[in-house]
User: Fold these one by one.
Assistant:
Number 1:
Amino acid sequence: MSGSYLEQVVQPDTRDTDIPPRLLGPQLERIWGTPRGLWGFLTTVDHKRIGQRYIVTAFIFLAMGGVLALLMRLQLSGPERRFIDPDRYNQIFTMHGTNMMFLFAVPVMEAVAVYIVPLMVGTRNIAFPRLNAFSYWMFLIGGLVLWVGFALDMGPDVGWFAYVPLSGPQYGAGKRSDIWAQMITFTEIAALAVAVELVVTILKQRAPGMTLDRIPLFVWAMLVTAFAVICAMPAIMIASTSLILDRLVGTHFFNPSEGGDVLLWQHLFWFFGHPEVYIIFLPAVGMISSIIPTFARRPIVGYLPLVLALIATGILAFGLWVHHMFVTGLPRLGESFFTASSMAIAVPNGIQIFCWLATLVLGRPVLKTPMLFILAFFFTFVIGGLSGVMVASVPFDTQVHDTYFVVAHFHYVLIGGAVFPLMGAVYYWFPKITGRMMSERIGRWVVGLVVVGFNLTFFPMHILGLQGMPRRIYTYQPELGWGPLNLFVSLSGCILAAGFVLFFFDVVRSMRSGAPASDNPWQAATLEWATSSPPPSYNFSRIPVVTSANPLWDATILPATRGLRVERRELLVTTVVDAEPQARESSPSDSIWPFWAAVTTSVLLVSSIFTPWAVVWGAIPVTFALIGWFWPKSTPEDLA
């Protein structure tokens, strides 16, 4: 495929072929650039700026959730502590879980994709960029609502799962559960919006020649994740909306005395909740599959098995939710099927690990900081996976359900299986995002502190769980014998916290004074490294043409397309399977309306916590914001 072929498909009445290469960049910058100052901050639809905001905001929420974790460990460091009263402790552990799952884990994975995926597939912006801006503002405001409620002693206190009837109108007095439920609405709107954008970007905006068997594995992982989000998130939105209606309007979805069912909540919640684990984990799989080939200095082994394993994991993830409900009295025969599926999902995960190990064995590994985090992942995730198979067994799960064994298990899966690869990805893509390198020396200290602190903190929790220590307790009696091990866990948590503090310090220091990075400092193979570091507003002056799965390794100079206009924002649309040029598509310009749409929608959602009439009156400003958003705009063709 060549530039001349593209010009036959995209009519040659365009401008970039008429502009010398040295003038093309400045011209594109004038069209795609974002104004400086507050106006540019509020109106930008550049996926890179929004992706950076998502990442920074999510990591701020991580730090805040980490502080809550340290407060819990301080309270549990010895028997009969009185540092935190029971009510505040309930709010803290609910805030910790809710914050980490809904405001950090899922958003940060999608945030990395918002920044990296358009660069990886060779396009100039994400699909539906105004929707992308809207999603960020909804995410930010939803997080602020949750934390402001906590600061005003209105933080949720029913666990991050908000089981009814505890969260229902009978026992959940005040507005605490309402704030939790509306926060769910904010974050799930944001997650669904980003998922739709990623699906369309990946399927319809890939660079010419990037056929399905040439898509980077991180992009494959995000495509599967996006479909999982689209299928899973409606369940929790239905659940949280039904809870609000029970609490504020007087419906009885979860009231057994009026024909409702409390187990309906658990089915809806865990139908979302267990796929959510893989919504967090699958992007990490893609990050690992990007980092390992780069530092092994060879193409990935088993590209097709890895893709099929990603798809299989995404599908099987929807058949596991009942293993969270083995003690609820469901039919034993039905539980056996979920035990089988819980164990079956270990098969594609095992395939992925063997492919990664084969790549390292057959390559020449270079042990830089990103690679060290991946090696730490192997150790911790295998432990989490093995304990996951254990709790998938009904007899064992019955014994350890709601104990600290489960706490240890899901932290090994989520931190070891997702956060370690994420931190490796930060070190890996930081030069691309900022144009500066992070410190290798500090990075090795971060790896050591985080990995050692993590294992010393969470592995003893397996033992505490087997000794019978239940979750969600704020204190315990001395004669139970849990004090020494809890003190050890709490002290080890300080080591883990020190590792994250050093990590944040390295990020801030490197942004200010890190060594300048070249365009491709790791000598990687994928397209995001084909542009400058950091990338310009338009990503690529000419859209590259892909001729292999490792374009930067297999071609000294990438061929490029011609034919896109430069007097307006324009994207290239390609076919789904073969990525052949199909059409040109205008990309929306910067706009204030996504911000106002998010503000008006937020006012509606927050006000509805206090009165159902807010849905009626709040819909009016939302309507005006949407009219402004979608009002037809003049184009160069209209003015011609």
Note: Residues 570 and 586 are 4 Å apart (CA to CA).
Number 2:
Amino acid sequence: MVMKNFKLLFVGIVLLCTSQGCNDILQEDPKTAFTTDYYKTAQGFQDGLNAAYSYLRFQYGSNPALGLNITGTDEFTFGPEPNYNSSGDNQPHKLMGTYDVTPQIGYLQITFNRTFPVINTLNGLIAFAEQVPTFTEQQFRESVAQARYLRAHYYYLLVGHFGSVPLNLGSGDLAFNTIPYAGFNRGTSDAERTELLSRNYQAMIEDLTYAAENLPDRRPAGEFRLFKAVAYHLLAKVYLARHYSTVSQTGDAQKAYDAANEVVTNLGKYGVALQQNFTEVFRQGNDYNSEILFSAERIPGAYINNGYLNANADGIGDGENMASNCFTSNYEQPVLQTPAGLDIIDGRPLAFQRPLRKLAPTRWLTETAFADKVNDARYHGSFRTVWTAATQNASGTTAYTNFINTLTTNGRVLGDTAFFLADSPAQAAAMGVSGANPFGTKYYRVYSSANWYSNQLYAGPPAPSNVVLVYPSLRKFVDTERASPNGSSGRPMPIFRLAETYLLAAEAAFEIGNATRAAELINIIRTRAAFRTGLSAPVLATRVANMQITSGQVNFNFIMDERARELAGEGSRWTDLALRGGADPSKFISRVNLNEDANGKVQAKHRIRPIPQSQLDAINDPEKQKYQNPGY
């Protein structure tokens, strides 16, 4: 089984009203016969697993997933495109970034409505595994372990966004259902939902414990098949989430530490290791490196099979990997370049990605979290701040030749700097930026953070004369091999990596009162963060020393800051904050309020999302509102 060759195929469609519309399901006219007996064959079981793996594409890297998991956090706000473009793929970013989230927002369905059929399929696989006649004992255990891990993973996403969610999809808790069901087994009182939340966590823990015991020790090279380190990683996240929740149990933080520590102290056993250089983690062509534990894989070039809207992957569909594009600012503006008005970035070069500008980093992230851009290589390793003369046209074409001639006429060549975003206002001033000359005096334009886009400065169009629609653009997911300048990515989208495992172990160590061990683990990550290619040994030693912290510096907010520096934009920030604010919403509110768009808007209710209206409409109960989360 090679996940990167999965097709987006759901074998065994689930007839549930926890998905959408029972009436639509009953009116279908199937053209091929299918029974659940197919799951009782080795091929049928594998196809069901493949389908469950493949749905991760919708949860990681897609435009709706980026909106749900990143917009409105302390790290990222909505960019200029959602600010003035109300199209369906833009507006949810603005609504989430202004905390005007209603049950009607379609992006909610990506995680809620569409995930329950996947879970139901996994329930069926787990139930039927014993009836697959060709399974050896090892095949049985590993196959069930994959299914149980994936079920826990999907429940983790649901609980992180919506709070308690049904375990009973119509046939009992975690049981396979094959008939239309119009109920919603979630409870309507606080006590019922709290009891269900407790069972949600217990179900995840039991599934992940089984997975950690029965998955292979290592993943195969070149594919993201599940292995033990992934199960331990998510188990640590689940125990930490329960530790912070209203249903916490004694020993949760210790068990979270034990799970994460199992991985970081047995790197050789699990075949995992940190990359020496932070930028190597995300280098295209190095997607299957030893640090990335798990990714949502796509098939480069097979756009329809990846769930894209068309063969060229030029749309912005629910399954497309748009992570390389959504973080990219509007570098196409000639006003950004020198000489003024000369377009020395020709079209949309593949290296620069499509400037969809849906997400922009907060000033807190770029200026406070990343205040140290000298010793800490992760800012420049994460963000593009320099754009150069480049073209989207292939060498030898007429358009390419004409562009080169234009550059030559103006004394420029390919690779010359077009514009630069200074690391700090002080650096911008040193490069000639002033009130009288807001864009610097160098041969290329220089922009201070006072000039680049933020929602606080930009109310346009038109923008203030000294503000441009550009900002540091996350480059972790750059794909230079897309089918077209507007194309989506065929790269795997990282879900978990070993650096986070260290941070989970550190956080759990702090929560059990061992700040010394927490600092030790964090310093492993910060030591790697000091590395840059080409540094002399003395300079590197100085930077490593400057990056070390003491146990006295470790606290909850420092850990959250460090997670932002290491994991910015990697797709889990909303649930990271929401789950840590389970029993104490002030933790969530204080973190989100670091986003300058959040102050005065974010409330305790925003920690969990509203149940989608489409789900409420499908419930066979006239009193639908009682199933909604409080405040919506």
Note: Residues 328-357+386-471 form one domain.
Number 3:
Amino acid sequence: MIKKTMSCISALLACCMLAGCSGVTQTTGQGEPYVTVGAADSQDDENYIAGLTAANDFYGYLNADDLMKMELGPTKSYIGTWTLIGNDTKEQLDSIIKEIAESDKDYAPGSNEQLILDFYWQVYDLVSSDKKNSEEDDTVFIESYINRIEAVSSVDELITMWHDLSAELALPTAFYGLVFNNPVDTREKLLLFHFTTFTKLEEIKNNNLKATQARDNLISYLRLCGVPADEAKQRATDIIYMYYEIAGYSDPLVLSGENDFNEDVHILTRDECSAMLKNLTYEQLMSAVGYDGRIPDRIAVEDPGQMTGVDSLINHEHLRAWKDLALVSLLSNYSMILPYKYATAGFDGVTPEKNALAYVKKFLDKQVSEIYVERHFNEKKKELISRMCSDMVAEYHDLINGADWLTDGGKSFLTEKLDHMEFFIGGGEPHETDPADAELIGSTLLQTAYNYDRDSKQKEFADLFIEKSVNGFDSMSPATVNACYLPKENIIVIPAAVLNKRMFDEDADYAWNLGAIGTIIGHEISHAFDSNGVKFDAYGNYRPDAMPEEDVKAFKAMQEKAIAYYNSFKVLGSHVDGKLTLGENLADISGFQCALSIAGDLESKKTVFESYANMRKMLISDIMAKDDLINDVHSPESVRVNAVVPLFDEFYEIYDVKESDPMYVAPENRIRRW
């Protein structure tokens, strides 16, 4: 008997044939995500699997045996190569933390181990004692800030209070300040100002239900502060009305999220910003976000109209509303670890150990990741991946220069990006231990959490006028099971965690690694040349017109073909959305094309085909699969294999695929990225 926690064998395997082609598409019709297939079905399953070939379902042909051994169960909607790597990484990280936590060593102050040890037991003790060991101290701590908020009686005092909440607790107030690089000149760092809301302004403006829900949420926080029910309702309503008014000043494209931030961000000089502000001074604006350093000559604002609207409401008439929003900001942060009187959530029955592990990984990611890299990454891995990256860059040079649809100007622009692309592999250099960091561990977990947030914000502000080299691991932790391309820096990040034996084996055949991690690297490189990536030049500057218009038109024509091609694939009776998944589909094709080109002889290419399919195996419930078709920018894993491999002539030669076979794609329809 074959037992599967799936509603149908088609969801387990192919489910991705071209529309009109043969393939099993039966379902139970019950919409249940987990159904055991009984003995009556098991023979059909075995016959189906026995009938799989490279020519009728390459994904199923390579992965059926492995997938049939996988189990989902009541709490998992999917499992596959990537989730298994995630499980491996979680076990490794947890092992590191528990080993340190259970050690009786005397670690140096400020060292990774000392911080992990102290933080772990602070969380563990809090959960195991059900908050009793910090209740009094945390109540005093929170109420000291509540009293400071309530004592505010003027706009000047309001600004001072905002500064204190931002500088001491890193809490958002009316505005939230971030340090970011000027999109059109990444050498310049700017303070970017966002208006802070506790719900989306567009939802409040256009959806009465959302506005009511937002008001009720505000009421609940005010009630925690002792405000009587009727008064809390009125005060929360006043905040919603204030939000309505601010929404009226706001750019509709910003409210809807349809603006291009890189193109539409507004950079204002000190004089220009001062001219906009009527109630705040430029210096008060800096103070409101907790900034205490050298006053910059320019800032960035996503929506000047919104800033004008907020500024117009910073007056005595709206003082109560701003104070109430400060109370909400104070209490909405770390709700699980607030004292009982102010908490809105609990630890939900999770064991002290699991909570301690989760909090350590959240707050001490840098410290834990450095130890992880030391134990699970090595120079041999770095050397091999560096070689692969170099091989892929060289191959991309050939692919780009050999693309007959690109003009010389387009080729020059893309190859310049390629020449300046940097790769961050594994993990960065460990930071220098600072004994003062030991002081970040406060007398209670709540105070420790705020200490870390404050420290992070202060370091961010301190970098405003300091030119620092790019570190890709600031954007993606070495313990992340993923890889990424960052267009504003023109860099590829390949964390240590993704270099797992399931994805990259330092002792395996080079072609096998090419089909797995190699196609991932090639995929990420390709994002430098997609419809978003080409808006940034080799130095990460936003230059949307740099790519020749002729090349942009040619690329759009290719995109339309790709959309139509992927639209023809079906999963569980529903079509893939070729437009939604366009960027990732083209990156899949490009990454695979690059890896296959490097492989060399047919035997090596065969290894690439099969390693690629193996890397993409995933068992997924039908409900999750249906949801992903609507919301995920990636095609289903089965489609990421079966749509890609038949685009390459070698597939037909190696696996003897004929025109009558379901996997066959006519030569004129074999789209390529290059």
Note: The two ends are 47 Å apart (CA to CA).
